[in-house]
Description:
Elements: H1 5-8, H2 28-39, H3 49-65, H4 71-81, H5 87-99, E1 103-106, E2 109-112, H6 123-150
Antiparallel strand pairs: 1-2
Helix pairs in contact: 2-3, 3-4
Amino acid sequence: MELNEAGLIERELTLRSLRLNREVLETRRSAVRWLALSLGILNPGESRLSSLAVLDAMIYFQFVKKQDPTAKDLAEYISEAWEPINEKTLRYHLLRMKRMEFIQNEQGRFYFKAPNVGDRYSAYEWSSGVFDSFCREIAEKIGTVVEDMKSKNAINVIS
């Protein structure tokens, strides 16, 4: 029996462990690019500044201002800090981050997915909570499959 692998995928998580050197922290733009690469929002060699601008705006509102912005708030911040952004482009990147399960929205306001425990305006608690839950869910499913495999017949290989 062949599995439809694409149909089994509930979500994908791309996390990259990147070297955190002095140059990364020199400017806000280099830091946000490093974050986007680490989170899989941006791929190596990609140069889309709009995704960086949206990520930067979300970080600014969530962790600096401690508030949930509207699309208008985000667009105004991006226009001042980066360059004007088309509303369709802004909404595309917000939807993409929502599908990646990094952000959520409610009543026209956007925010990073809150951790199960802790302050949602704390960058450390947010990042730990999000990635712990993603990884724990995947680890539990992998453990279930390995445990199930133990009870199945294996092919004996003779040396």
